[in-house]
Write a structure and sequence with these properties.
Distance between the termini: 39 Å
CATH topology of the largest domain: HSP40/DNAj peptide-binding domain
Number of strands: 12
Strand order of the largest sheet: 1-2-6-5
Number of helices: 8
Strand content: 15-25%
Helix content: 10-25%
CATH superfamily of the largest domain: Urease metallochaperone UreE, N-terminal domain
Length: about 325
């Protein structure tokens, strides 16, 4: 998939004001409208300009696009970095779009960001829009529950008509046992109401930060545990780390690489709690001395072992 430079499509500079973008769109829309244009590929260009305007007219989308596109050029191979939109606050609660945008547009904004709810101004007294944002927390926060200071980037238009991202700091209570994909609802922290309407809510979509030891899948947690060849072959009792402290783990004899041991209830808290799965990884001692080399030669002589026996070679 290729990166689309929406500023290039619109023929404006990256620091263009919102008014300049609007004027450029109106000119291009008239030029390439399929009903009147005699330009080659007018319909495709009209659609391309419309998509670019959809991304740049909205301060939220534009601020997010600017951050993402700072290191890309038009036509460059593109894949959205994971969690690139962390901390950006968007209006709406994820209403589906109409599916008419390009794969590039959908890949960065998704259909969840297609609608901005501009019809909220039709009533003098109306409930404020709900907002949403994606945030990352540590695995330890889910195990214990905590209160964390979270900074969100809220795109706004400054006095000169440029889009700027202002910071908004919130103290957020992290519920014990929350896992990736779940939401925290902050009542009244969304968009302001119209007239006497109450403010909307803010929904924080939670993602767990990558951990150097553990990975979570729902409430279950996984750990790769290195063991020595003799511990796997003969069985042993070893110390194993868990997010709640080390435990004595019994390694069954004749264990193989990839063997999973289940520690019931030691995953993320909940009702029921998740489990902790320990996957055994065979760690080989380095052959970095005469004695080690001799031990390996003796193993090669005494153990009739072919690691490629099941490959049919």
């Amino acid at each position: 998939m290729e990166f689309k430079d929406y500023y290039q499509v619109m023929g404006v500079k990256r620091d263009a004001t919102q008014d300049q973008i609007k004027r450029a769109y109106r000119q291009l829309a008239r030029k390439f409208h399929p009903d009147v244009s005699k330009e080659a590929h007018a319909e495709a260009r009209f659609k391309e300009v419309g998509e670019a305007y959809e991304a740049l007219k909205d301060p939220e989308k534009r601020a997010a696009y600017d951050q993402l596109g700072a290191n890309y050029k038009a036509g460059q191979e593109f894949r959205p970095p994971p969690d690139w939109d962390d901390g950006f606050e968007f209006r709406g609660r994820g209403d589906s779009g109409d599916g008419t945008h390009s794969d590039f547009f959908e890949s960065i904004f998704g259909r969840a960001h297609a609608g901005t709810g501009q019809d909220r101004h039709r009533s003098f007294n109306m409930h404020g829009e709900d907002h949403h944002a994606k945030v990352q927390i540590d695995l330890a926060d889910s195990y214990t529950g905590s209160t964390r200071s979270i900074t969100l980037k809220v795109p706004q238009i400054d006095a000169q008509g440029h889009v700027v991202a202002k910071e908004r700091v919130l103290n957020v209570a992290i519920p014990k046992g929350i896992h990736s994909g779940q939401h925290i609802r902050l009542s009244g922290q969304g968009g302001p109401g119209i007239g006497e309407g109450k403010p909307g809510d803010l929904y924080l979509q939670v993602e767990l930060r990558p951990h150097r030891l553990y990975r979570a899948d729902g409430r279950d947690v996984y750990l790769d545990l290195p063991v020595a060849p003799w511990e796997a072959a003969l069985g042993a009792s070893v110390k194993a780390p868990t997010p709640e402290g080390s435990v004595d783990l019994k390694i069954p004899p004749k264990s193989r690489a990839g063997t999973k041991l289940r520690l019931k209830g030691r995953g993320l808290p909940g009702n029921p709690a998740g489990d902790l799965y320990v996957a055994l990884q065979i760690a080989l001692p380095p052959a970095d001395s005469v004695a080690a080399m001799s031990a390996y030669r003796k193993m090669a002589e005494e153990l009739p072992f072919d690691p490629r026996a099941e490959m049919g070679v």
